[in-house]
Specification:
Helices cover 25% and strands 25% of the residues. By secondary structure, it is of the alpha/beta class.
Length: 135
């Protein structure tokens, strides 16, 4: 059994297809893609019906709290090109890659250059917990 983060098989398969598509990957940050590849290779895969409700999956709506100033922001974790709203968090962004497969309480470094951190404070919506397995 693999260790590391927990991914649903559906999210894993869709992300692998994106990473394997050379045209899509060429438009993404190489380091972020490499990080996500590593996470996928070392992940624990579960069926969507078996994922725990405290794990961030694709299309989850989460609350991130800035540890420094206490400010909270709500985001929806999305695939590339799915949403251009301010509250959309692309899974191939620095923060998006880190939150996927993580649990409530996980501390995330927001930027590789700066010492700014957020904590996954709450999962407001997780598709699998809501029975929305098609997302």
């Amino acid at each position: 059994m693999r260790g590391g983060k927990v991914f649903t098989r559906h999210d894993y398969d869709r992300l692998k297809r994106i990473i394997d598509d050379k045209d899509t990957v060429s438009d993404l940050d190489e380091k972020t893609v490499d990080t996500l590849k590593h996470d996928l290779e070392h992940s624990q895969l579960v069926e969507p019906t078996d994922v725990r409700p405290n794990i961030v999956t694709m299309n989850s709506k989460i609350c991130l709290k800035n540890i420094g100033n206490g400010r909270k922001q709500i985001y929806s974790l999305v695939f590339p090109g799915e949403s251009a709203t301010e509250s959309a968090l692309n899974v191939f962004s620095c923060i998006g890659t880190q939150v996927l497969g993580s649990t409530i309480g996980t501390v995330i470094k927001t930027n590789p250059v700066e010492d700014q951190y957020v904590v996954i404070e709450e999962i407001l919506y997780q598709p699998e917990a809501a029975g929305d397995y098609h997302l």
